[in-house]
Amino acid sequence: MILTTLKKLELSTSELQSCDLIPETIYAGINLKNSDVLHALTTTKMSKNFISENKLDRKKNNLHTSTGTNGGFRMVNLAPQSKRSNSTEHAFLVITSAEKAKANIWSDDFDSGNHLLTYHGDNKASQNIFNTPKKGNFYLDEIFSENFAQSTQAFPILYFKLFADNRVEYMGLAYPIPNGLKSIREKNNIPNYEAKFYIDQTTSIKKEWLTHLKEGKSAKNSIVPQSWSNFIHLKPISSNKKIMNKIFSLSGGQNEATVKAKERITQSQFRHTLLQKQHRCLVCGLDCSKLLIASHIKPWANSNDQEKIDSNNGLLLCAIHDKLFDKGLISFDTHNHLCVSNLLTKKDLKILHLDTSRTFAQLKGHQTYLQYHRQYVAKDILSSSNDF
Ligand SMILES: [Zn+2]
Fold first, then answer.
1. How much distance in Å is there from the Cα of 279 to the middle of ligand 1?
2. Residue 167's closest CA among 24, 40, 8?
3. Which one of 16, 110, 233, 353 has the fewest CB atoms closer than 10 angstroms to its CB?
4. Could you tell me the pLDDT band of residue 69, with boundaries at 50, 70 and 90?
5. How far is ligand 1, taken at its centre, from the CA of residue 385, in Å?
6. Domain HNH nuclease, which positions (predicted)?
């Protein structure tokens, strides 16, 4: 099952560094190039335990980032303190495809119906297929070797698309298809690899998992994507169809963690949008951002995906006015007058800074949602006009 695509999420660098990676979600930074957005999205923050166990300088070592800004391959290696003999030195690999308009000689192709990615290696000039600066073809050779899944060298692959307007889309976890690597010759007879991957778009990636990978720890099961567990426990399987079934067998549909992650990120984006328009509580003017809540006029639970992120469905309110609005004790009539419930006394109104003579012209665009609020949320509202 494919997750619904959200609108572009414009996040701050620290939000990008901490947010989960949700398949088919487009991320952008505030004044950031897409290489910086990708860099922030694949940054792993080292855990406190790891830093203290290894006596690391927090300032220098708590952020470990992916390398390089160009080319389709970015290998993230284990933290030097975690390296053990006989096991992998790689934490995870990031592969990217650039938007067609900007494409280089080798253009990648993603077939979304079949979750099938045709990816190209990174040789552009050499007669030796492995002679590339990012070692991409070398990694492809390793990834597509027969025993990669069972080897102690196995590492997950995260697939992203980069757009010319600096957006970055997280596509999913990439899995090599058996016998899916072939050597081709294209322009100027230069040899290169063409590689076929399955992309798992059912599982979101938690930053905590990337941290565990970086620290070389076997992570708690709850944060390891099911498709990755399935993949590394594969016995050699003959057909492509069987391997795909095996990888996806236990990870179909949106799991609860994915749904939660999606909700968190949608909510964060919604708040961000409202804060850009307005910096204070609509009712009382309080401007302490820690106390401001992005309140949905039509309640979150009753809103569809579009309504959940529509800024016209949002009011920025302080904690107390959010509660009053949420409980239906205050609302606004068709002329944007503040209306209050008769459950509140005159004394309450004074204490709560509720002035029913006030009009809020800025609510014009919110009337469709306010109509819903008046009809289904508001309780025992007294209105001076007949337009409630
Ligand atoms: Zn307020």
1. 12
2. 8
3. 233
4. very low
5. 24
6. 281-333
> Ligand 1 centre and the CA of 331: distance in Å?
13
CA distance 246 to 192: 30
Distance 292 CA to ligand 1 centre (A): 8
* 112 inside domain: yes
Distance in Å, CA 347 to ligand 1 centroid: 17
- DSSP assignment of 202-257 equals S--B-HHHHHHHHTTPPPPGGGS-HHHHHHHTPPP--SHHHHHHHHHTT--S--HH
Give residues with Cβ within 8 angstroms of 258, minimum separation 6: 3, 22, 202, 203, 204
Cα of 10 vs centre of ligand 1, distance in Å, is: 27
Residue ranges of E strands in the chain: 9-11, 25-29, 44-45, 63-64, 73-77, 90-98, 109-111, 116-120, 157-162, 168-185, 191-200, 292-296, 314-318, 330-332, 338-341, 381-382
Asked if the structure places residue 224 within a domain, the reply is yes
* 388 sits in which H/E element: none
Q: How many whole angstroms separate alpha carbon 69 and alpha carbon 178?
A: 29
Number of domains into which the chain is organized: 2
Rounded to the nearest whole angstrom, what is the distance from the C-alpha of residue 318 to the centroid of ligand 1?
Answer: 4
**Structural domain of 373:** 278-382
Percent of the chain with pLDDT over 70: 81
What's the 353 CA to ligand 1 centre distance in angstroms? 8
Residue 267 CA, distance from chain mean position: 12
Is 379 within 8 Å of 329 (Cβ atoms)?
Answer: yes
Mean residue pLDDT of the chain comes to: 82
Tally of CB atoms within 10 A around 9: 21
Measured CA to CA, the distance from residue 226 to residue 84 in angstroms comes to 25
As a whole number of angstroms, the longest Cα–Cα distance in the chain is 85
| Distance linking the first and last C-alpha atoms of the chain | 43
Q: Cα of 322 to ligand 1 centre, how many Å? A: 7
Q: What is the pLDDT of residues 120-161, one digit of tens each?
A: 888 888 889 998 888 889 999 999 988 888 777 789 999 999
- Provide the pairing of β-strand 168-185 with 191-200: antiparallel
Domain contains 95:
yes
